[in-house]
Amino acid sequence: MPHRHFSSILSWWVGHVERHYRVVIILFTLVTLAILAYTVKNFKINDDLTSMISDKLPFRHLEKEFYREFPQTTDVIVLVVDSDSIGSAMDARRRLAERLRKEKNLFNSVYEPGGGEFFERNGLLYMEPHELDELSDNLAQGEPMMGLLFRDFSLRGFFSLIGTVLDNYGSDPSGKMDTMLDHVGTAFRSAAVNRPYHLPWESMMYGEKEAADQRKQFIIVHPHLDQDGLLMGTPPPDAMHRIIGELKFDDSVKVRMTGDVLLAYEDVTTVRESVGLATFASLILVGAIILFALGSIRLVFVSLATLLTGLIWTTAFGLAVDCLNLISVTFAVLFVGLGIDYSIQFCLRYRELVEAGHDNRESIIRTAGGVGTGLFISCITTAFGFYAFLPTAYAGIAQLGLISGTGMFIGFFCNLTLLPALLTLIAFRKGLISPLTRKISFKTSFPYKHYRGVCVAALALGLCAAALLPGVYFDYNPLNLYNPASESISTLKELFTNRQAPPWTISILTDGKKSADELADRIGKLKEVKAAISIVDFVPTDQEEKQNILSNMALFMAVPENLSVKSLPYGDNMAALNSLETKLEKFIAGHPGEPARRMTGLLDSLRQFKKNAATPGRGKAAFASLEDGLVAGLPPLLTRLDKMLHPATVTYADLPPDLVREYVSPAGRYRVQVMPREDMMNVAALGRFVKAVEAVAPNATDTPVSIYETGKAVVSSFRLATMMALAVVLVVLLGSLRSFSAAALVLIPLFLAITLAAATSVICGLPLNFANVIVLPLFLGVGVHSGVMFILRYLTEPPADGNMLMTSTARAVFYSNLTMIISTSTLAFSAHRGIASMGKLLTLCFVFIMICILIVFPALLQLFVKYREGKQRASG
Predict the structure, then answer these.
(1) Three-state SS at 329
(2) What is the DSSP string of 533-587?
(3) Phi/psi-derived region of residue 126, left when phi > 0, alpha when psi is between -120 and 50, beta in every other case
(4) What is the rounded end-to-end Cα distance, in angstroms, of the chain?
(5) Helix, strand, or coil here: 530?
(6) How far apart are CA 732 and CA 736, in angstroms?
(7) Residue partners of 772: CB distance under 8 A and separation at least 6
(8) Distance CA 374, CA 799 (A)
(9) Cα 813 to the center of its chain, rounded Å
(10) Are 407 and 310 in contact (CB under 8 A)?
(11) What is the C-alpha to C-alpha distance for residues 856 and 854, in angstroms, rounded to an integer?
(12) I need a labelling partner for 771 at 20 to 30 A (CA). Which of 83, 274, 316, 402 fits?
């Protein structure tokens, strides 16, 4: 459509608005109030990350099929129970699980991996024969000393045991006795300052790695959730902390929480708070900027009123389409920055005309005809920059694209309807301009005088930036988007170091026990796989051999019945301590060198404790603490061990129902669970793992597959959206400007800004991710706006001296981009790292587009003019 014809339509429309401004304002007010009531009532954020990707993709079908068969594996809360002893951790896990099972109105199921009577009796059958041999050797070495301690199971007996160790010092080449004595020293020092510490008997029996794994116990809870992701109207973290607090665990027990329920809750809470705060901050900062730019309280008022109206309408449209998601909710901040741009362009031209002596009505109508076409072209390119994601599989950003793209048309309509009506009601007068604002202008001709140097510098800078573009990459790991300080994220990341139970595994559905066993065997041979298990693997192998080893152990590990610690009076404990002190002194005197140095440290710790326990009043508590740290944990450990030394033969029918349910669905589908060999926090390792398993089992699913396939879908969506946005921008520019050279003048600064922003992101270590991937196609549509306004002003109303920097258009471009920089930078401070990265990348883009438009564009324009003049002279 020719510019003049479209401008006349806009002038005609605004003329009617101006004549009926009261009716327009009343209608807008009533409609906006009704829409606001609808918005408040229906506002909700969908925290389901899986809904962010189209259901039509094959991996989503596999994922849904798996969760239908095993619903208990999704929407879970994982409780991690840590303690400094296995017994304490297991006891805390058992008590907590029992308490959770009583909350039947809150939880569907409570599962203890490796817990319960079955594993307490048969747990050792799951060790390999060589591991049992090693355990047997450890117990055999310690059996004589245990025999001594059994005779007097008290602190006195333990001190006597240490004396025996000293008498036989040097007979243990393994160094285990030295390690035990070091722990005893630590126990003395801890008891001296009343700090809990437990001698790690498990480490000395099982080995440190095995003991460390067992000191970390798990509970998996499948909760009832309402539509807001709450437990009976209570946030999941609050409900869980209440239950944990009721059990009053001692200081040695630590219970932490993670799982997709908590991740989703924390994520949506962080997003809601971050975006809400960012939107509020954007409105305040944008208001300050446009006051500085427009120089009039009246113009600021009408601009913000128009902006808020458009924001309310756009929010209601988004809720009418569907509830907002964790990405589309950011439309509010984007709308503030983009929507105010139209008002700035309109108001600055309007003010320019009023200052030139035109009356209010004429200024409004001429402004509509003058800037309206450029605003509409900008509206189209910006909207289609958003709409470019609609045909892609990335449903989360497609929703943002639909809401924000439509919001641009809503903003355009408000600025060409409500804004003129408000300007008619509250007329701006020439004398109302701020003196400070009068001084602000771009009184420079530098880009015009040095246009060749500016163009050469821009080319060199662009080439240098382009050399860094291969460093741009996509971060597939969604955990890098969450607030790293949250409990659920820090706990989950720590679990990736767990060699026994990594949190991300691949699952494969099969139709029979035999096929599951065969598939697990085949996949388990892959180099990327640490283990592949099915329910068959929970029937221990080599049971006869293992039972023989355990029977031999039971012969020399005769644990007395009802074994318990005998607490002695203060005087007896102090006498035994003095006796041990004397033993240590004699040992040090007779063993110079390293043995003396080691025992001197133990003696110093003993004396530190003895000083604290010098009086009966303080000594009783000190000895009680020492008793708890040295010997209290041994009876339950030995009792559990004695129970496991007499296992029954385990068959498939003996497996506990809750374990079977983890691997066999009610419909008879069997699950093969595949564990990775490498750390899944490494994106490259995750890709290798998924591709290797999918090569054998194309129907593989679960978290690693979902993350990998989602990343592929997002990257594909990014490419498609970028190409579509670029195509739309080219078509709109060529259709509206009717000139390849004019379109090139607009696009060159845009591409330069994008290249510089991408290079800066590489330098700053800011990768593309699931949240900020929208920036490039979006910016292709948004960033073209400034160039369009510049070139249209030059083509339709060029300044007399040719210096575009002296026009209101240049000021509008400056302030428009400044508002976008301020608006998007508020997102950069979000605790949600995905939203923060989006804010950072958008801020970089708008900083560079402002520089390119105000410096490079005038130089390119002057180069083009000089080239055309030279060509005309040559032809003439």
Answers:
(1) helix
(2) E-GGGGS-SSHHHHHHHHHHHHHH--PPTT----PPPHHHHHHHHHHHHHHHHHH
(3) alpha
(4) 33
(5) strand
(6) 6
(7) 766, 834, 837, 838, 840, 841, 842
(8) 17
(9) 35
(10) yes
(11) 6
(12) 316
Contacts of 265 by beta carbon, 8 Å cutoff, 6+ apart? 47, 229, 235, 236, 237
What angle is formed at CA 231 by the lines to CA 226 and CA 235, rounded to 5 degrees? 110
Q: Reduce the DSSP state of residue 649 to 3 states and report it.
A: coil
- Report whether 229 contacts 264 (CB < 8 A): yes
Is residue 806 within 8 Å of 442, Cβ to Cβ?
Answer: yes
Residue entry with tokens 């950003």: 397
CA dihedral 79, 80, 83, 84 (to 10 degrees): 170
Q: Which two tokens stand for residue 455?
A: 């163009």
Contact assessment for residue 476 and residue 767, using Cβ atoms and an 8 Å cutoff:
no
Q: How far apart are CA 767 and CA 798, in angstroms?
A: 42
Helices (H), 170-235: 176-192, 201-206, 208-214
Name the CA radius of gyration of the chain, rounded: 36
Q: Using CA atoms, how far apart are residues 520 and 537, in angstroms rounded to an integer?
A: 9
Q: What are phi and psi of 101, to 5 degrees?
A: -65, -20
- In 3D space, the residue among 706, 712, 704, 707 whose CA is nearest the CA of residue 677 turns out to be 704
Distance CA 138, CA 148 (A): 16
Please state, in angstroms and rounded to a whole number, the distance separating the CA atoms of residues 186 and 717: 58
Number of neighbours of residue 69 by Cβ within 10 angstroms:
18
Q: Are 273 and 486 in contact (CB under 8 A)?
A: no
Task: Give the closest residue to 220 by CA, choosing from 259, 249, 250.
Answer: 259
Compute, in degrees rounded to 10, the torsion defined by CA atoms 493, 499, 500, 502.
30
Q: Using CA of residue 410, residue 416, residue 420, residue 421, what is the dihedral sign?
A: negative
> What Cα–Cα distance (Å) separates residue 129 from each residue in 124, 141, 525, 764?
10, 18, 21, 52
pLDDT in tens, 507-558: 999 999 999 999 999 999 999 999 999 999 999 999 999 999 998 888 877 7
Tokens for 214, please give them: 């067992």
111: three-class secondary structure by DSSP: strand
CB-based burial of residue 714 (10 Å sphere; 0-12 exposed, 13-18 middle, 19+ buried)? buried
Q: Which residues fall within 8 angstroms of residue 680, CB to CB, at 6 or more apart? A: 496, 502, 503, 504, 686, 689, 704
Q: Is 92 exposed, middle or buried (0-12, 13-18, 19+ CB in 10 A)?
A: buried
SS3 for 131?
A: helix
- In which element (H, E) is residue 599 found? helix 594-612
Give the rounded distance of the alpha carbon of 79 from its chain centre. 19
Tokens, residue 319 = 């809720």
Length of the chain: 876
Phi/psi-derived region of residue 75, left when phi > 0, alpha when psi is between -120 and 50, beta in every other case:
left
User: Which sign, positive or negative, has the C-alpha torsion 761, 767, 771, 775?
Assistant: positive
Contact between 674 and 532 (Cβ < 8 Å): yes
Nearest to 632 by CA among 127, 154, 282: 154
3-class secondary structure, 181: helix
Bridge partners for 508 per DSSP: 672
Q: Give every CB contact of residue 504 below 8 A, 6+ residues apart in sequence.
A: 496, 676, 680, 686, 702, 703, 704, 707
CA distance 705 to 509: 14
Strand partners, 672: 508
pTM of the model as a whole:
0.78
Q: How far apart are CA 292 and CA 376, in angstroms?
A: 25
| 3-class SS string, 727-747 | HHHHHHHHHHHCCHHHHHHHH
DSSP three-state, residue 666: coil
Give residue-wise pLDDT tens across range 671-706: 999 999 998 888 889 999 999 999 999 999 999 999
Spans of the chain, pLDDT less than 70: 1-4, 46-51, 171-175, 208, 227-230, 232, 323, 325-326, 428-444, 499-500, 869-876
